[in-house]
Amino acid sequence: MELLWFYVAVALAISDLIHTQLMWKVMADFYIILAGLIHNTVKSNVTVWIIHELFEAIFHFIVISVLFLSPTIGFLAAFIHFVIDVSHTLLLDNVDMNEAEHRALHFVIESIFFMAIYGV
Fold first, then answer.
1. Which residues lie below 8 Å from residue 102, measured CB to CB, with a gap of 6+?
2. Amino acid 109: pLDDT
3. Which of 3, 16, 38, 114 is the most exposed place for a label (fewest CB within 10 A)?
4. Are the beta carbons of 105 and 97 closer than 8 angstroms?
5. For the chain, what is the radius of gyration of the CA atoms?
6. Per-residue pLDDT averaged across 84-103, rounded?
């Protein structure tokens, strides 16, 4: 239980890599068409982006919940990942980060979040 915070942060990082590979390499055409359909419905790029982030959070919820057999951990992982994605896009949009820096930002903040919950 002492290292649960670390295992969850690592699993969430791996889940994010899997999500990226699935959505942008395997299912890219479907994902682009789905985004177009959603945009035709909501008529707002910001809303489409938020829906994309919510879909990603649902993906992480499912993966982490199954992996740790805990919907609570899955919810917390999806929630913190969603908050970080939205926050860094809004607050750090003009900061140019490569993929490794982006992943490191997520990992550090997610680790601190789970350390605060499970590391005490």
1. 88
2. 93
3. 3
4. yes
5. 15
6. 85
The residues near 66 (Cβ < 8 Å, ≥ 6 apart) are: 74
Q: Are the CB atoms for 20 and 14 separated by under 8 Å?
A: no
Structure confidence at residue 71 (pLDDT): 97
Determine the structural domain holding residue 67 and report its residue range. Answer: 4-118
Q: What is the pLDDT of residues 3-57, one digit of tens each?
A: 898 999 999 999 999 999 998 888 889 888 999 999 999 999 999 999 999 999 9
Q: Torsion angle, CA of 20/105/83/24, rounded to 10 degrees?
A: -10
What six digits make up the tokens of 28? 């890219």
Closest CA to 81 of 2, 19, 3, 4: 19
pLDDT of residue 62: 97
Q: How far apart are CA 15 and CA 20, in angstroms?
A: 9
